[in-house]
Amino acid sequence: MNKTYLISIPLIFILFISGIFLLNLNYEKKESLIVSDIPLFELQTLQKRKIDQSIFEEGEFKLINVWATWCINCKLEHGFLMNLKNQDIKIIGLNYKDDLEKAKKWLIQFGNPYYENVFDPLGDLGFELGVAGAPETYLVSKKNKILVKHIGIMNDKIWFDKFQSFLND
Amino acid sequence: MSALQENINLFYSPTDLKNNPPSSDRSIRAGGLVKEKSLLRNTDSLEIYFEITDLKNTIAVTYNGLLPDLFKENKGVVATGYFFVDKNEFQAYEILAKHDENYVPKEVEKALE
Amino acid sequence: MFPEIGNILLILAFTLSSVCFLSTSYSYYSDTKFYDLQKSAYIIFFLLLVSFLLLEFAFLTDDFSVLYVANNSNPNLPDYYKFSALWGGHEGSLLLFVLILSFWMIAFSFMNNYSKIKDKNIVLSFFHLILSCLLGFIIFSSNPFERLLPIPSLSGTDLNPLLQDFAFTIHPPMLYLGYAGLVVPFSIALGRCLNVKEGWTSKIRNWTVFSWSFLTLGIALGSWWAYYELGWGGWWFWDPVENSSLVPWLLATALFHSAIVSNSRKIFNNWTILLSILCIVGCFIGMFLVRSGILTSVHSFALDPERGLILLLLTFGITLYSFYVFFKSDVNDENTINYSLISKEYFLLINNLFLVILAAIILFGTIYPIFYEIFSDGKNISVGAPYFNLVTVPIAFFLAFFQGYGVLTKWQESPLELKPFLIILLSLFGLSIFFSYLIFNDLSLFNLAGIIMLSLILAGVFLSAFRNFNKGKLFFNSFGMNLAHFGIAVTILGIGVVSSHSDSKEVILDIGESVKLNNYEFTLLEEDTRKESNFFSQIAHFEVENLASGKTFNLKPEKAFYPASKSVMTESAISINFKEDVYISLSERLDTGEWIAKIQTKPFIRFIWLGALLMTLGGVFAFTRRVFIR
Questions:
Q1: Would you say B93 and B81 are in contact if contact means Cβ atoms under 8 Å apart?
Q2: Which residues make Cβ contacts (< 8 Å) with residue C329, sequence separation at least 6?
Q3: Are the Cβ atoms of C370 and A20 closer than 8 angstroms?
Q4: Residue C588 domain-assigned (yes or no)
Q5: Is residue C93 domain-shared with residue C190, that is, in the same domain?
Q6: In CA terms, which of B73, C67, C133, C297 is 20 to 30 Å from C330?
Q7: Residue among B33, B102, B113 minimizing CB distance to A133
Q8: A127 interfacial to chain B (CB closer than 8 Å)
């Protein structure tokens, strides 16, 4: 067979599928803007005080951060959350399917970036929010609408790419 | 090519099933979270009933067989089978689940968005 | 401290490897002096080995300040699994891969002497090309030594329980020996494009056969693992991960058959080079599919798209570069011969054509969901196993058809001696049908296809072995080839029987209750629990009676719970027997105390892996005979 064919046919095939892969990888990144309300709930904080949706006060941006002591990746983003706290950003922690004592110990040991922590041992609020795992972080608008949902570790890059633009509005 | 056409299973979320239901002679996959407290089991056979939700809509699923280890309420699930729009019921012949708190099947993740 | 050293060693290896590639390219294109780079190959291997051992050390000492260790290990994990947990995740398995690749590099440079330093350098530079790309990928986006500081984890998430298993500990190393081994023919072929001609065809043939053997074993181990560990008795799922190992395997099979022709007849040269490149491209596409998270699969590593993008760029770059070198080359067949329709050349050409088509079809089915998602605006699909079965079986049938008589043909032109072949073929066919009736009392279409393929292959193998035996050279002339072909027949037998005669039943049993399946009666005797360091489990004791022979044996399937990763595992119990496996897996325990279980019989399933083992042995035999006993 002619060498030109030998080269061009497989090459075109490979380039074609690489192109498709590339399109698909970019496609994944497009995430739709979700706007939904904060669900109603009634649970306890880590200090066993009663807490409900009224913790979300209107008029300011808040984050909901889903975390647990069994979640390795939550440790990775912990430092970043502490930074956010130092920038006066209000983070509501959702302690997801965790052990109360372990969770308290974690916060004493590593520092507490949270404004308040909702203790959700059975994942009830998590279910209402559509939490699939930990860590997850949600941006809640001034009017208590959930604007962004991020699955996975938070860092500077994700903060600037996905969250920052809403804060400036 | 035609073999490929006949053997692909389209993925539907409960909302998709409600908005444009597929014909009942075509095998499809449906996925979402297993709705809490929806699992019912027939006491003397392997028949199982549960509901799949994407937090907007819910469909009923019947299945005759063994559930995978990772099948749990509130967890992601993908069922393969046939959808009967008149009964609003999905008859599954295969159930796949993946339980890892850090992981959800990609399709389910999308359906939930 | 140690993880940082490991990291530095990786960076050194990366730098050295890149320098080797760049300096050789520079010397080649500027026509200046070549430096002997043999030593640097040894140094790179040593650096990677130490860095690998340092990571092992972190695993064995439970150093959870290392993120990768924290994500894949646990203090309660038995030491043996701590050791193998290293390749349980993405980063560590890549490190193992580059270690094996550098091992192949030194093995190759140790065993093959080139008369000119220049020639050796050119071939080695292509090893360095692949090695430095992967090392760069590890260092910049998948570093296994990344620290979890300043807050080290206390306990670690645990190795996925599915991977806490013997077959898994050796499956990835074998597979990687196979994949990385394919870099050897790739380097030789590209070397040939730059005019390194010394024995290139025989080198490609030998080294491809060798790495193909490991690939075969690796795939078979994966299938065996899936069979008993995933809990439901399937041995092949047409899962994207399995497919992406099957595609390079098929291409490698085509490659060494083509290299045989290039070596003996000096034709198909360009085709052999093309296949060598495609094998590596196939490996990289497979690696991309498995590691980018673009496809969901039971085995895949859940990962972020950024890594996928880098892998895609690597795949793309290596493809373009190697095609460029190939395009610029001046390789021609050194022989112009006409071969007739019944000649070894022609049969091997057909073999190659079908193998490549089969690889393309499987690849296409695997990535079709990705196409579909783009062109249908985000709809998700999956391609079902029936597609793969439907397209592979007919092609495999044709392959067997040509394989059977093919081994008997001679170069250029051979007389059509159908008589002895047909006699053996028909007697084998008759015998198989007879035994099939004797054992299973019926005959399905699938089984019939299996028997025809089996008889065709075996007729060729037996006749060829018989001829060699007559010449007194049974163990020399093509013994390895005959053994491997025999292995294929054994695997086909296994697949045919297990696909058409397996039986299963899903049951609910109370303690003391019995149920029948085929010739067996299953009784649930009692239940029990046990506790190990990292899991605890519920056990159901079954007594199984073979009604035909009256013999009984016990099976104890388990349901294990792993607290560290909060996961449940089905530990099936299997009675292993050449004729038939009896397989029990537990589903769940009902509140009433009854157990839901699946009982299965899997006739001849052992033959699938036995055949793969024979193929491996055949390949290793052929390699050793050619390389060590000339």
A1: yes
A2: C192, C193, C194, C195, C273
A3: yes
A4: yes
A5: no
A6: C133
A7: B102
A8: yes
CB contact under 8 A, C381 and B6: no
- Whether residue C75 is found in the same domain as residue C118: yes
- Which ipTM did the prediction report? 0.82
What b/e string do you get for A16-31 counting C-beta neighbours within 10 Å, with b at 16 or more?
ebbebbeebbeebeee
Nearest-CA residue of chain C relative to A28? C305
Tell which of C348, C372, C401 closes a domain.
C401
Q: Which residue of C has its CA nearest to B29?
A: C381
What confidence score (pLDDT) does residue A34 get?
A: 58
Residue C596 domain-assigned?
A: yes
Same domain, yes or no: C152 and C243: no
Instruction: Tell me which residue in A71, A133, A149 faces B104 most closely, judged by beta carbons.
Output: A133
- Which amino acid makes up residue C444? S
Partner B contacted by C381 (CB < 8 A) = yes
Contact at CB, B70 and C567, closer than 8 angstroms: yes
Is residue C297 situated within a structural domain?
A: yes
Note the pLDDT of residue A61.
86
Dihedral, CA atoms, C591, C594, C597, C599, nearest 10 degrees? -170
Please check whether residues C187 and C143 belong to one and the same domain.
no
Contact between C242 and C366 (Cβ < 8 Å): no
| Residue % of chain C over a pLDDT of 90 | 56
Give residue A167's pLDDT: 77
* CB-based contact A27 C374, cutoff 8 Å: yes
pLDDT value for C149? 64
Contacts of A129 (CB under 8 A, 6+ apart): A39, A64, A66, A94, A138, A146
Check: CB of residue C249 under 8 Å from CB of residue C219. Answer: yes
- Residue of B101, B103, B106, B113 to mutate when probing chain A, most A C-beta within 10 A: B101
Q: Which residues of chain A have pLDDT under 70?
A: 1, 27-35, 132, 169
Q: Which residues of B touch A151 (CB under 8 A)?
A: 109
Task: Give the other-Cβ count within 10 Å of B46's Cβ.
Answer: 17
Residue C579 inside a domain? The answer is yes
Q: What is the pLDDT of residues C325-352, one digit of tens each?
A: 999 998 888 888 888 888 999 999 999 9
Which structural domain, as residue segments, surrounds residue C356? 181-317+340-401
Cβ-based neighbours of A118, under 8 Å, separated by 6 or more: A41, A43, A44, A45, A51, A55, A92, A93, A94, A95, A125
The model's pTM is 0.88
Identify the CA nearest to C132 among candidates C260, C285, C298, C20.
C20
Mean pLDDT value of segment C119-135: 95
Cα atoms found within 13 Å of the Cα of residue C400, Cβ hemisphere only: 26
Q: Where are the alpha helices (DSSP H) in C31-89?
A: 38-60, 67-72, 79-84
Q: What is the CATH number of domain B2-112?
A: 2.40.50.140
pLDDT band at C153 (very low <50, low <70, confident <90, very high): low
* B contacts of A70 (beta carbons < 8 Å): 101
pLDDT at C554 over 50: yes
**Degrees (nearest 5) of the Cα angle C137, C140, C146?**
115
| Residue C150 reports pLDDT greater than 80 | no
- What's at C337, amino acid-wise? I
Joined together, the tokens standing for residue C357 give: 């088509």
Contacts with B102 from chain A: Cβ below 8 Å? 71, 73, 133-134
How many separate domains does chain C show?
3
Residues C145 and C189 reside in one and the same domain: no
Q: CB distance from C293 to chain B under 8 Å? A: yes
Cα(B7)–Cα(C176) distance, rounded to whole angstroms?
A: 32
